[in-house]
Amino acid sequence: MITSLFTERLYLRKMVPADSASLFKIWSDPDITKFMNISNFSNEGQATEMIHYINALSKENKAIRFSIIELTSNEIIGSCGFNYFDFENAKAEIGYDIAKQSWGKGYAPEAISSLLNYGFETIEMNRIEAKIEPGNINSIKVLRKLNFTFEGTLRQAEKIHGKFIDLNMYSKLNTD
Length: 176
Known about the structure:
β3 (64-70) and β4 form a beta hairpin. The chain is α+β, with helices and mostly antiparallel strands. The protein starts with a strand and ends with a strand. The protein contains five helices and eight strands, in the order ββαααβββαβαββ. It has a domain at 4-126: Aminopeptidase (3-Layer(aba) Sandwich).
């Protein structure tokens, strides 16, 4: 499994524990975690635990998450990656988050395009999915910009913060 990807403005590097302070700043912001399946973090140790958890999944080729580093500033501005791989069916699910001060600058589509290229060309996925809460308008705009197809709403698909929520299913095929 690859550990880094580059775009014109970004360096995507597999998360390491040293990223915990920067990622804590992002994951402690309720505006960022509002549509994530985590509550906003209250201490840096939670970010460290999350990195260790994700990296354990990565060792088993079940998932991988990258810190998104803006090349000019060398600052971590978010994270993205594959939440799971289903190699038998050649599909994967992506997830991403961007720090609020970096919203609206095109970083999310740029990072996700890099993931798509890696997923389709290197590990030969046929399908890449994204499950988005219907209210997450910014994320939906990103997926539309990348020509994902809206497939429908999964009603009460997950339990987050003690209640069942709907998720919109988006996908992109290798042939799209």
